[in-house]
Description:
- The protein is of the alpha/beta class.
- The protein has three domains: about 1-80 and about 155-170 and about 185-225, P-loop containing nucleotide triphosphate hydrolases (Rossmann fold, 3-Layer(aba) Sandwich), CATH 3.40.50; about 90-155, no CATH class; about 230-290, Alpha-Beta Plaits, CATH 3.30.70.
- The chain has ten helices and 14 strands.
- The chain has helices at about 45-50, 75-80, 95-105, 115-120, 140-150, 170-185, 195-200, 220-225, 270-280, 295-300; strands spanning about 5-15, 20-30, 35-40, 60-65, 70, 80-85, 155-160, 190, 205-210, 215-220, 230-235, 250-255, 260-265, 285-290.
- Helix 6 links the parallel strand 7 (about 155-160) and strand 8.
- The radius of gyration is 24 Å and the shape is elongated.
- Adenosine-5'-diphosphate binds near residues 42, 46 and 47.
Amino acid sequence: xxxxxxxxxxxxxxYDGGKEALKGVDLTVPAGSVFGLLGPNGAGKSTMIxxxxxxxxxxxxxxSIWGWxxxxxxxxxxxxxxxxxxxxxxxxxxTPRGALEVQAGLYGVPKAQRRSDAILDMVGxxxxxEAYARTLSGGMRRRLLLAKALVHNPQVLVLDEPTxxxxxxxxxxxWENVRKLNRERGMTIILTTHYLEEAEEMCDEIxxxxxxxxxxxxxxxxxLTQLDAKTMVIExxxxxxxxxDNEAITVERRPDGTIAFNYRARETSAEAVLEHVRASGLxxxxxxxxxxxxxxxxxxxxxxx
Length: 305
Ligand code: ADP
Ligand code: MG
């Protein structure tokens, strides 16, 4: 058994009408990780995920899931993955319990091994087990979609924008479940999200996709250090003139009256910045530093090229 949960090579998708949604993506997702797939709207995230789920047919390239090639072993590769789609596509005439039973049947889970009640309990839908899907709120439908993705106990769970537009309570429930499935069952988790702080908090590794191409793939920690831009923000005590830039530091006055000294943490020490401040006659009333976050990495990598 290899240690890759997902192996994607040269993956291309051109939709009818000519839209090239994926332009040849290579990506390996390690088993046991919580993996973030990030990218702006239209980048190709859902296309990739729907190909993994078997909902969209790829144009070219290879996909294997838990070591099973999607073309040569379609049944095994499908059984290894559960997908919570972005769209709320539920049959309105099924109850949550009914929907899980149907899903279990589709995946060939024997009656004795079905855990519908436990799964409904986990996602907080026990008291709605017999309610018709059409009477469920948006949040409840999302919970049900997560439950459906889990009925066959897949090794890999994929969540496509699970928290877009959901309330804080549901978001917390989702993340608690995801962490638990990852830690306690070793389930590999792949998620797409627009919320960068979420990716920063949840994901061990991150891939960034833009216009159907992979633009970055690294551990979250490495991506964050890739940008070593730092800013020292000084609240001046006196009304001094704006200090000049030098070769390592650029200076700007902010609308709130503070003065920002931008520098590269690897090349320039905080001490050197403070020296520059003092040399210019500025007295410091207060000082803080700002560091690049994932938002900055993301923007610098996806700025339209
Ligand atoms: P993301 O999930 O990153 O927002 P998508 O994978 O949904 O991106 O879409 C990628 C590109 O493919 C977009 O330009 C989108 O308009 C296009 N696209 C998605 N689905 C279809 C489809 N069924 N037919 C034609 N074009 C599509
Ligand atoms: Mg999408």
